[in-house]
């Protein structure tokens, strides 16, 4: 049974049932959650925490001369002299500040990069277990370095978590020299690693990895433990088992720094993480083909209702009657009313809600799910309930085996188990209430190092998709002629290809980056700031990799970003705009969108029709705000329901063992 921290969060959080340190699931009531949402929203907007961090950063600045003139051995010895106080958590804040000053000096010597004062403010907040919002381009990778180093010197296994393997490897390679300066080991988890290599990487002092690898390795550990014994027995087993044969990979959940925290904690938290095994059944392909054949003859409005906003399909009484009549001549699951209706609903979802080039692509004879928030494929992910297999049949592919659940958990429950959790994001204040309520994370907005010079040019709404692509091509050609590089952001693979065709018709050379073309991702994004470049990209270009401006580009006005479709979260729009005008560079942005876009037709269909039919001043801007507000509210509800369902399943299945 998880242990509570007490009403209103009073009392100390207790350890969970595990052989290594992690917190138990918190238990709260509606009053707790309501208060935490309000407190989180308020404290993120008042400057008191920021003022305190600024004072501490100035104290670290004042220590800089103490370490600037000593050699490397003396600098390393100074750090080692602090370790006993850091390990024992003695001496208050003073040894932490000294350690930060030493790491800052080391970073300057080893990497040639010295953290600005605002980056030190962010690093202090991370070390204290907070979520920081830093503007895009302010150097979050370098900001996390002092926090990770000092935490590792304090004896905590440190996990630096980001959204994909490429970024994890890149950041580890960039920062490795500083960790090794202090004798700390660095591990990197890659999706293709075997178990032995993963164990070695997790035994490092600092481990860089993606959120998917981390959570699924945790679930594999839980399955290995079987959760059959008491906490004391599991800890004894961990201590007495030879490490060479130890099945566990993680050394506990001590301290994590989560990069792109809004993506991990919010965008990806709408679906549970399920560890499954594959059970082959040769009859499944025939079953799914029958469901698709039946789904194709059903008519929307008469036989089923399609809720576009919630992405749900419901059979009407007439539809259920047709399914029942058709099932009379079929065998197996078709004789079970609930099973056949769910099967047909999945087939209808595959036909009407999941489309190639949007939700997935077909690559190497497989269905690859496309993450709508990052624009990347997720090759190890599959949909539940037979949906994945039905889509395989729809696309004429070999059908994979039926999935059987071994363990499941949500991001909300998993990350709350860290003894100390922190995060970095470019867009976090809007969700500060949810961050505190769900993850216990207070949010701090860190000021920019230089004044922002980015300028938003215009927002244009077109009645049709074809008109949108024509205007996008013309706008890109105009900026291209003026010497500005252009980055065009799209939401789907299909849209990126449409944009590229429109540009090609004007005789413009274009580089395309989407889920089908990721091999040269870093190179394409890095060169997007060179004079004369036009780059079309999905959300891949919105996070992670800096776009450096080429010669003469600053004088021409900097990078020009064109957003071609508003996202369901305004945060992701801000991420794309944030590719321009980084670190005080000039830059311009504009939006050219269509009133036929999914955001409008799905979340505000009536107002969309009104705006299309009339020219009410400000109507289109109101439409965008209303549609995004409804979308974000719907997603927040989904996340809360997912967490509640996870806890309900754990209670319901407690007699048979935990589900994780």
What would you say this structure looks like, in words?
The model is unreliable at 1-11 (pLDDT under 50). The chain is an alpha/beta fold and 660 residues long. β3 (186-188), α8 and β4 form a beta-alpha-beta unit.
Task: Please render the helix and strand layout as text.
Elements: H1 30-45, H2 48-68, H3 72-87, H4 94-111, H5 117-127, E1 131-133, H6 140-153, E2 158-162, H7 165-181, E3 186-188, H8 195-202, E4 206-210, H9 211-225, H10 231-240, E5 255-258, H11 261-265, E6 273-279, H12 284-297, E7 304-307, E8 312-315, H13 317-327, H14 337-352, E9 360-363, E10 366-370, E11 377-378, H15 387-394, E12 402-409, H16 411-415, E13 420-425, H17 432-439, E14 443-445, E15 453-462, H18 465-481, E16 486-489, H19 493-505, E17 511-513, H20 521-526, E18 534-537, H21 553-556, E19 559-563, H22 570-577, E20 586-594, H23 598-603, H24 605-613, H25 619-652
Parallel strand pairs: 1-13, 1-14, 2-4, 2-5, 3-4, 5-13, 15-20, 16-18, 16-19, 17-18, 19-20
Antiparallel strand pairs: 6-12, 7-8, 9-10, 10-11
Helix pairs in contact: 1-17, 2-4, 2-5, 3-4, 4-6, 4-7, 5-6, 6-7, 12-14, 12-15, 13-14, 14-15, 18-19
Record keyword descriptors for this entry.
alpha/beta; seven-stranded parallel sheet
Question: How is this structure best summarized?
Answer:
By secondary structure, this protein is of the alpha/beta class. It is 47% helix and 15% strand.
Q: How large a portion of the residues is in β-strands, by DSSP E?
A: 5-15%
What is the end-to-end distance? 14 Å
Work out the helix count: 25
Mean pLDDT: 86
Fraction of helical residues: 40-55%
Strand tally, please?
20
| Uncertain runs | 1-11
Q: Estimate the global geometry from the Cα principal axes.
A: globular
User: Largest sheet at a glance?
Assistant: 7 strands, parallel
What is the radius of gyration computed over CA atoms, rounded to a whole number of angstroms?
A: 26 Å
Structural class based on helices, strands and sheet pairing? alpha/beta
- Write out the strand line-up for the largest beta sheet, numbering strands in chain order: 3-4-2-5-13-1-14
């Amino acid at each position: 049974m998880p242990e509570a921290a007490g009403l209103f969060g009073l009392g100390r959080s207790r350890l969970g049932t595990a052989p290594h340190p992690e917190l138990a699931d918190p238990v709260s009531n509606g009053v707790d959650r309501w208060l935490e949402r309000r407190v989180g929203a308020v404290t993120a907007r008042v400057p008191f925490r920021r003022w305190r961090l600024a004072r501490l950063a100035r104290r670290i600045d004042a220590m800089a001369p103490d370490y600037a003139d000593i050699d490397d051995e003396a600098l390393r010895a100074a750090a080692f002299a602090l370790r006993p106080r850091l390990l024992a958590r003695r001496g208050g804040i003073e040894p932490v500040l000294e350690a930060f000053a030493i790491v800052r000096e080391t970073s300057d010597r080893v990497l040639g990069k010295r953290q600005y004062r605002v980056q030190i403010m962010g690093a202090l907040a991370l070390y204290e277990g907070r979520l920081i919002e830093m503007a895009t381009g302010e150097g979050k990778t370098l900001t996390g370095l002092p926090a990770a180093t000092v935490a590792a010197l304090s004896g905590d296994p440190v996990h630096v978590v980001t959204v994909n393997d490429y970024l994890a490897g890149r950041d580890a390679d960039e920062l490795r020299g500083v960790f090794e300066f202090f004798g700390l080991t660095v591990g990197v988890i890659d999706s293709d690693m075997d178990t032995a290599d993963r164990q070695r990487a997790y035994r490092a002092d600092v481990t860089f990895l993606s959120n998917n690898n981390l959570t699924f390795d945790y679930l594999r550990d839980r399955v290995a433990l079987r959760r059959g014994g008491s906490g004391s027995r599991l800890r004894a087993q961990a201590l007495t088992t030879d490490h060479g044969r130890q099945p566990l990979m993680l050394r506990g959940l001590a301290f994590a720094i989560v990069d792109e925290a809004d993506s991990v904690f919010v965008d990806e938290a709408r679906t549970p993480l399920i560890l499954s095994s594959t059970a082959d059944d040769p009859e499944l392909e025939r079953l799914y083909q029958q469901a698709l054949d039946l789904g194709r003859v059903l008519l929307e409005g008469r036989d089923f209702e399609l809720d576009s906003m919630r992405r749900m399909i419901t059979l009407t009484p007439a539809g259920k009657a047709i399914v029942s009549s058709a099932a009379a001549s079929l065998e197996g699951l078709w004789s079970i009313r609930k099973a056949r209706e769910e099967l047909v609903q999945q087939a209808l979802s595959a036909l009407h809600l999941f489309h190639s080039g949007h939700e997935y692509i077909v690559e190497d004879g497989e269905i690859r799910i496309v993450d709508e928030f990052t624009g990347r494929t997720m090759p190890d992910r599959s949909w539940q309930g037979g949906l994945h297999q039905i889509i395989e049949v729809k696309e004429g592919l070999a059908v994979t085996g039926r999935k059987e659940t071994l363990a499941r958990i949500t991001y909300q429950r998993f990350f709350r188990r860290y003894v100390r959790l922190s995060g970095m994001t470019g867009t976090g204040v809007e969700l500060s209430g949810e961050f505190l309520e769900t993850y216990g994370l207070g949010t701090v907005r860190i000021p920019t190092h230089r004044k922002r010079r980015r300028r938003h040019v215009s927002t244009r709404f077109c009645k049709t998709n074809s008109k949108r692509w024509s205007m996008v091509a013309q706008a890109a050609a105009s900026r291209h002629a003026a010497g500005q590089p252009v980055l065009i952001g799209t939401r789907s693979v299909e849209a990126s290809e449409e944009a590229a065709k429109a540009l090609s018709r004007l005789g413009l050379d274009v580089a395309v980056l989407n889920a089908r073309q990721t091999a040269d991702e870093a190179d394409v994004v890095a060169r997007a700031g060179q004079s004369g470049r036009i780059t079309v990209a999905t959300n891949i270009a919105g996070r992670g990799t800096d776009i450096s401006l080429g010669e003469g580009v600053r004088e021409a006005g900097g990078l020009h970003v064109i957003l071609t479709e508003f996202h369901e979260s305004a945060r992701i729009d801000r991420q794309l705009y944030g590719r321009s005008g980084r670190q005080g560079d000039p830059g311009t942005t504009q939006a050219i969108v269509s009133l036929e876009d999914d955001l409008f037709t799905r979340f505000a269909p009536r107002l969309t029709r009104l705006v299309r039919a009339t020219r009410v001043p400000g109507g289109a801007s109101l439409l965008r705000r209303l549609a995004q507000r409804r979308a974000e509210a719907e997603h927040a509800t989904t996340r809360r329901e997912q967490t509640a369902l996870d806890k309900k399943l754990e209670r319901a299945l407690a007699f048979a063992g935990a589900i994780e």
